[in-house]
């Protein structure tokens, strides 16, 4: 049995004028760490709210841990943990009071499931008498995760837990998720950071309410259909504008210290031909090399294809 | 000699015993794209507020666009633009109404407003949406619009506080095209981001840790200095030593 099964879910807002989710189907296996990768407005939060029984879909069905999200909402609320994108704990209660409150709501106590939260809770325990509203962003996030875990959920939903969090705290957070996975908890986590996709077992790339692809990060990257090149020069802004007018160009965009480009004809000596063109345009320090794509490259490609299909 | 856009010397902000910003010193050249990085709670926002004339420093010196942060705050405000991840245009005004409103505040004439409005709508290809409520636009468009409005009065410097947070990868890059264009037009860009690939798009970067600036150089030199492959590694190397994690 799948931990999460979504079949043809559609959700619209504003009397059908805004489509948040369009015919979404996917399954998440028990114990899987599954990532929902996409920008703001892609439909990630709507999907989370449907799966946690807080929102009813227009069409389609979904089950969580075998329970139907509409009929069996009570069972689902008892067995899932949910960390919404917006901090939703009681700001006026202390760290410890919040945790005790959530534990007692689910008929349990902090001590009963302490093992599960220990690793995370020890980091905020020194501040257990501090009001939640007075915590830093990173500590709020850890407390919210503890509160979502305190009743030992079978499925954990984390909606953008790392948004606006710096690179160091993000890394720590993902290490915590890996340890939770070892406890057999199914985790569905969303993020707008493409580099976090590689930390999931399987991912769904989502954009404008539609799934662009669902697979392991490795397979998504491997299905990139073309050779990708990294190009750089001393003046990156100049070279970007010059490459944009290169005859054989298919796509080019900035990617950190390099430009990433693909070509219409993957002909021989592509490197030397492009170098000649760029030298003629007075670029210096030119470097061109073949590279493997990343998830972000795949996302950009799939997004472009999806919007081209829409236009035709 | 070209005028510096920002000069900062031992700038400090203290809240009681807590030194939020601890003697930071740096200079930003006119027309430069300057990345202002740091972990959560390192003091970026506090520093930025002082530079924007919104908060008095406890000690040190700084000029922004040639004006003193202690006694010329109003002049600073008139010569800078500001935009943050939190959308700040009026959602229930149309694009053109927002342009008129913010341009008006910055003292643009009716004729300038009309010209600027048309120019901006054309550049962003928002002709069809010009009379739509801004709240109806997708996030990426909103952010591009907010940026264009933030520089509508051609400020000397624009401050961007995580402008691309949560934006899709294609729009993020279009946003950086706008940043480059602004820099070409002579506007100095002071930008914070959590995306390390974007750090590479800056001419120079500073990295704040616990209220101090612990590194400042071009992305290439920083990678050399820390023997790191990527900016992500440089950032991690510096920020993991941080004692503070508070906002």
Automatic annotation (TrEMBL), chain A:
Entry-linked InterPro entries: AAA+_ATPase, ABC_transporter-like_ATP-bd, ABC_transporter-like_CS, ABC_transporter_ATP-binding, P-loop_NTPase
Keywords in alphabetical order: ATP-binding, Nodulation, Nucleotide-binding, Transport
Keyword Transport belongs to the record: yes
The keyword Nucleotide-binding appears for this protein: yes
Domain ABC transporter per the UniProt entry, residue ranges: 4-233
PROSITE patterns named in the record: ABC_TRANSPORTER_1, ABC_TRANSPORTER_2
Pfam name, any one: ABC_tran
UniProt GO MF annotations: ATP binding
PANTHER family found in the cross-reference section: ABC TRANSPORTER ATP-BINDING PROTEIN, ABC TRANSPORTER ATP-BINDING PROTEIN NATA
Family: Belongs to the ABC transporter superfamily.
Protein's recorded name: ABC transporter ATP-binding protein
Taxonomic lineage: Bacteria, Pseudomonadati, Bacteroidota, Chitinophagia, Chitinophagales
UniProtKB/TrEMBL annotation, chain B:
UniProt keyword terms in alphabetical order: ATP-binding, Nucleotide-binding
Residue stretches making up the ABC transporter domain: 6-235
InterPro entries in the record: AAA+_ATPase (IPR003593), ABC_transporter-like_ATP-bd (IPR003439), P-loop_NTPase (IPR027417)
MF (Gene Ontology): ATP binding
Keyword ATP-binding attributed: yes
Top-level division of the source organism's lineage: Bacteria
Claim: ATP-binding is one of the keywords in the record: yes
Name the record gives this protein: ABC transporter ATP-binding protein
Organism for this UniProt entry: Pinibacter soli
């Amino acid at each position: 049995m799948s931990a999460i099964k979504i079949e043809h879910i559609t959700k619209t807002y504003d009397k059908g004028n805004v489509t948040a989710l369009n015919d979404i189907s996917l399954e998440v296996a028990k114990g899987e760490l599954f990532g929902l990768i996409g920008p703001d407005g892609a439909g990630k939060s709507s999907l989370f709210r449907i799966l946690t029984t807080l929102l009813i879909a227009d069409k389609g069905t979904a089950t969580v841990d075998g329970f139907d999200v509409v009929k069996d909402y009570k069972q689902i609320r008892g067995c899932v943990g949910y960390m919404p994108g917006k901090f939703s704990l009681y700001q006026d209660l202390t760290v410890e009071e919040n945790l005790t409150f959530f534990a007692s709501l689910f008929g349990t106590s902090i001590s009963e499931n302490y093992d599960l939260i220990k690793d995370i809770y020890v980091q905020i325990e020194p501040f257990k008498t501090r009001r939640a509203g007075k915590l830093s962003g990173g500590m709020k996030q850890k407390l919210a995760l503890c509160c979502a875990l305190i009743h030992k959920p079978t499925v954990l939903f984390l909606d953008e837990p790392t948004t606006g969090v710096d690179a160091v705290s993000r890394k720590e957070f993902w290490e915590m998720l890996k340890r939770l996975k070892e406890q057999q908890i199914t985790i569905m986590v969303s993020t707008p950071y493409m580099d976090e996709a590689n930390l999931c077992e399987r991912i769904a790339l989502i954009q404008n309410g539609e799934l662009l692809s669902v697979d392991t990060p490795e397979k998504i990257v491997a299905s990139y259909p073309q050779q990708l090149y990294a190009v750089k020069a001393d003046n990156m802004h100049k070279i970007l504008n010059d490459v944009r007018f290169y005859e054989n160009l298919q796509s080019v965009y900035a990617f950190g210290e390099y430009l990433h480009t693909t070509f219409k004809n993957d002909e021989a000596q592509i490197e030397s031909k492009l170098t000649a063109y760029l030298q003629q345009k007075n670029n210096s320090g030119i470097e061109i090399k073949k590279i493997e794509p990343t998830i972000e490259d795949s996302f950009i490609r799939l997004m472009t294809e999806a919007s081209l299909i829409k236009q035709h | 000699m070209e005028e510096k856009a920002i000069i900062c010397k031992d700038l400090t902000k203290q809240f009681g015993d807590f030194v939020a910003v601890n003697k930071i010193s740096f200079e930003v050249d006119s027309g430069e794209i300057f990345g202002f990085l740091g972990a959560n709670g390192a003091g970026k926002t506090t520093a930025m507020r002082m530079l924007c004339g919104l908060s008095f420093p406890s000690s040190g010196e700084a000029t922004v666009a040639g004006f003193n942060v202690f006694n010329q705050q109003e002049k600073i405000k008139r010569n800078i633009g500001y935009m943050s991840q939190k959308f700040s245009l009026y959602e229930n005004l149309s694009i053109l109404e927002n342009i008129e409103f913010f341009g008006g505040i910055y003292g643009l004439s009716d004729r300038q407003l009309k010209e600027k409005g048309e120019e901006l709508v054309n550049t962003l290809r928002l002709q069809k949406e010009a009379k739509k409520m801004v709240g109806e636009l997708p996030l990426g468009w909103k952010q591009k619009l907010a940026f264009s409005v933030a520089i509508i009065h051609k400020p000397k410097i624009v401050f961007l506080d995580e402008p691309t947070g949560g934006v899709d990868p294609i729009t993020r890059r279009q946003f950086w095209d706008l940043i480059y264009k602004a820099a070409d037009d002579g506007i100095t860009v002071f930008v914070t981001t959590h995306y390390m690939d974007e750090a590479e798009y800056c001419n120079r970067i500073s990295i704040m840790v616990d209220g101090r600036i612990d590194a400042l150089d071009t992305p290439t030199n920083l990678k050399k200095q820390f023997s790191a492959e990527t900016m992500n590694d440089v950032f991690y190397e510096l920020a993991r030593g941080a004692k503070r994690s508070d906002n």
